[in-house]
Amino acid sequence: MNKKVLLALGFFLWQAEAFSEGQSWSTVGGKTLGRGASAIDAGVGWPGLHADLLYGIHKKMHLGVRFAFNWGVEGSVRNIYPGMKLQGLLKATLFDDGFLSFALKFEPGFLAYFYPRSTLTPRRSEWGFTFPLGTQLGFAVMKPVVLGLHLDLPMFLIFGRSGYFQIPLLMGGGMEYFISSKFLINFVVKMGPSFNTNGGSTLFVMEAKFGIAYRFF
Q1: How far does Cα 6 stand from its chain's mean position?
Q2: Any idea what DSSP says for residue 74?
Q3: Contact 77, 206 (CB under 8 A)
């Protein structure tokens, strides 16, 4: 048999084995931690930095908590003000065959942003709820490498007389590289419009973060 055909067949079989084994968890794909496993996940970039603590309550579901400090209001590249968020995290795997994985996310919580005093307005703050919904589709292109496609609706509601309801629509994805079965690095980029239901202008928002994650068990 032709040597090139043998090499191609060998590469195909090696890739198939890598797909079938894969990694048992993912931050950009659709896999979760697994029952009883815990992990930390942290990232920095735009619109800020975050730290997550995660715990697997089921082989296809994990819960967690996130603290974030932002310097752009929910990803807006125009409204550059500081803020904080505290969220609960839920991720559930709906499909996983080793190569392809798909998950749903729900990340409700509280947010606050702080605006500086100006000659026209006093210092003020905005408080509200955030309740993002999202999907993650992962592809284990090689055993240490996973690519992800993401579609997110990080909706939030601001209270008060000037309150409003904002519906961002972010599309994009990410890549992660497993340095070991427990430790990975990742990069995520998502962007899109953000619609104001009170008739305000549509904003351009984005998320671009570099991160690390470590799974303990």
Answers
A1: 40
A2: G
A3: yes
Distance (Å, whole) CA 28 – CA 10: 29
Helix intervals (H) in the chain? 3-21
Paired tokens of 148: 């992800």
Per-residue pLDDT in tens (0 to 9) along the chain, 217 residues: 566 666 655 555 555 554 545 689 999 999 999 999 999 999 999 999 999 999 999 999 999 999 999 999 999 988 889 999 999 999 999 999 989 999 999 999 999 999 886 644 555 788 999 999 999 999 999 889 999 999 999 999 999 777 889 999 999 999 999 999 999 999 999 999 999 888 778 899 999 999 999 999 7
CA distance 216 to 167: 35
Instruction: Find out whether 175 and 168 touch, Cβ atoms under 8 Å.
Output: no
Residue type, 27: T
Provide the 10 A C-beta neighbour count for residue 136: 24
Distance between CA 131 and CA 198 in Å, rounded? Answer: 18
Half-sphere exposure at residue 92, Cβ-oriented, CA atoms within 13 angstroms: 6
Cβ(209)–Cβ(44) below 8 Å: yes
Cis peptide before 108 (omega within 30 of 0): no
